[in-house]
Amino acid sequence: MKKLETAAANKALELRERVKKSKPKFVRQESWRYKRLKENWRRPRGLDNKMRRKIKGWPLTASVGYRGPKVARGLHPSGYKEVLVYNTKDLKGVDPKTEAIRIAHTVGKRKRAKIIVEAKRKKLKILNLGEVKEITKKEEEKLEEREEVEKGKEKPKQTKTKGEEESDGES
Question: Quick check: is 105 in a domain?
């Protein structure tokens, strides 16, 4: 992004925060009346629905006028655009100036550690790093060794099974 665009995005983020404070909390119709209905927003439908008809005294409904600034839509509060990452290959097209990565929740410890190491090398911002402790240099070296073994650069020592040992002794 250019300097003007980043300045506009930052201004839009501030505006979005300010507007969000005055925006009402949209609740599902009559969720306050019945325990079985959660407050999760559902659009009111029905011919005689008071909320749909915007009758005075009933809660406000979500509409286009409550949208945030176009520049700020889809941006993380930090100002970066979020990119969901599942493996190290997904880090290739990420721009460190405008984009930040979020590691998918389905990624396990080992792959997560690989992604973190690679992201630090590329100087990328990780949005959900708080869940993982810092990786020590020893662990980083172990990960690199495992990667080399997986790629086939170093073949692990193969041990003979009992059947193979017996056949070697007989000949």
Answer: yes
Q: Is residue 93 part of a domain?
A: yes
| Contact between 143 and 113 (Cβ < 8 Å) | yes
Q: How do residues 25-48 score in pLDDT, each as one tens digit?
A: 999 999 999 999 999 999 999 999
Long-range contacts (CB closer than 8 Å, 24 or more residues apart) made by 114-121: 114/87, 114/88, 114/143, 114/147, 115/85, 115/87, 115/88, 115/91, 117/143, 118/88, 118/91, 119/91
For residue 3, give both structure tokens: 């300097």
Evaluate whether 128 touches 103 at the Cβ level (below 8 Å).
yes
- How is residue 56 written in tokens? 């005075």
Q: Are 149 and 143 in contact (CB under 8 A)?
A: no
Structure tokens given for 74: 């889809």
Domain limits at 140? Answer: 76-154
The answer as to whether 103 is a domain residue is yes
Domain count, the chain: 1
pLDDT in tens, 97-116: 989 999 999 999 999 999 99
110, part of any domain: yes
Task: Write down the pTM of the prediction.
Answer: 0.61
